[in-house]
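Quick review question:
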């Protein structure tokens, strides 16, 4: 594996540091040209906004923000490599089809893979993890794995043959890295490039290392762990690990919020330092509340959001963090959507999405799937009937009425 170190490394502790790194990119000539690689469009929007807020709006002239995957796709188009993205959405269906064909496996019985649900998801996740680690089926064969590894390699090869020119994200990153390593002119963007990097896979890291005139904008985090530095050295090079290891988190002491941001994730010996700044009392920037149950917590969250909106805070500056998406995120989003908002519902975005089954339509669809999977057994059919629309005055059956109807019909 070729390990080309980045030209420069910038450690970013905040979005403001990333905006400074953009402004520091070299951009000579009458028309400046810079490229910023971002994980998602949301990150690009946040960077543009912060650049304007920090009085560095001039740095946006001539600066293009490109998602890293879109940049990899552009490289392959320049290299005239024929492919189509989006294989992740098709992989489960391809696996189910492969399990019905005459695969020759050493460890897994094909009957088990066909009849027991979940094996398609398990193999899809396993192969996706291996691809992200920049491995291929032939790598498993060379490693001399046991029967299970050999079966994974065989299924993986058959999956690639069935996919043809349809590629996953990890395969796109790997192919783009190989293209840039052999012909750097395939990079389609002029000027210097800044890559905003948090957690990356091996395939993504190899692609970034192959980008010419690259500055790595590493998003630093606390607490700093040795394994994180070792991983950074393996994926992004020793310069990146050294920069992360030597970087010192900014410590502010302007108020309670600054103290919390500065010391929340510091190691114990830093927290125990008697000379470090401490709070002089509540200043309104941090509130700690304790509630008796989930319902009170959700109501308090809605009241806090309403107060922030009433004080003129922009919606994109308000964030609600929950310990788990399911079911908390859906409950909070539904409560916030009921807040009054200009003759409409309050716009709420849930990062990561809400499970379809959390909605009424999704719950009905799930009832149908469960009923069919159970071959319309009595209990499953009773759960399915309330999802169906009836003829007459009653729109839907209640669960109790559905139970009475099912058992009155008898069993087959």
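Suggested answer, residue by residue:
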């Amino acid at each position: 594996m070729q390990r080309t170190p980045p030209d420069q490394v910038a450690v970013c502790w905040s979005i403001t540091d990333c905006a400074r790194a953009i402004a520091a990119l070299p951009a000579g000539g009458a028309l400046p040209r810079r490229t910023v690689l971002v994980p998602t469009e949301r990150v690009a929007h946040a960077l543009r906004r912060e650049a304007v807020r920090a009085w560095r709006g001039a740095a946006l002239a001539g600066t293009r923000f490109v998602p890293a995957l879109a940049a990899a796709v552009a490289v392959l188009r320049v290299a005239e490599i024929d492919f189509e993205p989006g294989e992740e959405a098709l992989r489960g269906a391809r696996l189910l089809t492969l399990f019905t064909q005459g695969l020759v496996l050493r460890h897994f019985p094909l009957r088990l893979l066909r009849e027991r649900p979940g094996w398609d998801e398990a193999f899809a996740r396993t192969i996706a993890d291996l691809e992200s680690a920049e491995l291929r089926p032939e790598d498993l064969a060379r490693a001399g794995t046991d029967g299970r590894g050999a079966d994974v390699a065989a299924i993986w090869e058959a999956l690639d043959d069935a996919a043809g020119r349809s590629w996953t994200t990890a395969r796109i990153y790997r192919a783009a890295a190989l293209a840039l390593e052999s012909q750097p002119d395939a990079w389609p963007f002029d000027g210097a490039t800044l890559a905003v990097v948090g957690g990356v896979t091996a395939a993504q890291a190899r692609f970034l290392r192959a980008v010419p005139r690259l500055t790595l904008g590493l998003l630093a985090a606390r607490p700093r762990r040795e394994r994180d530095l070792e991983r950074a050295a393996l994926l992004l090079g020793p310069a990146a690990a050294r920069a992360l290891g030597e970087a010192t988190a900014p410590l502010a002491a302007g108020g309670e919020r600054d103290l919390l941001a500065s010391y929340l994730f510091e190691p114990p010996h830093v927290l125990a330092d008697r000379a470090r700044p401490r709070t002089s009392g509540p200043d309104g920037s941090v509130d700690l509340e304790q509630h008796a149950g989930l319902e009170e917590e959700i109501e308090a969250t809605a009241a806090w959001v309403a107060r922030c909106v009433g004080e003129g805070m922009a919606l994109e500056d308000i964030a609600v963090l929950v310990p788990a998406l399911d079911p908390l995120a859906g409950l909070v989003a539904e409560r916030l959507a009921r807040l009054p908002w200009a003759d409409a519902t309050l716009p709420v975005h849930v990062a990561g999405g809400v499970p379809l089954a959390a909605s009424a339509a999704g719950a009905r669809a799930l009832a149908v799937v469960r009923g069919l999977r159970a071959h319309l057994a009595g209990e499953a059919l009773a759960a399915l009937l309330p999802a169906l629309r009836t003829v007459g005055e009653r729109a839907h059956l209640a669960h109790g009425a559905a139970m009475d109807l099912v058992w009155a019909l008898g069993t087959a």
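Why it works: The beta strands are 8-12, 34-38, 63-67, 84-85, 166-167, 192-197, 214-219, 340-341, 344-345. Residues 147-163 form the longest helix (17 residues).
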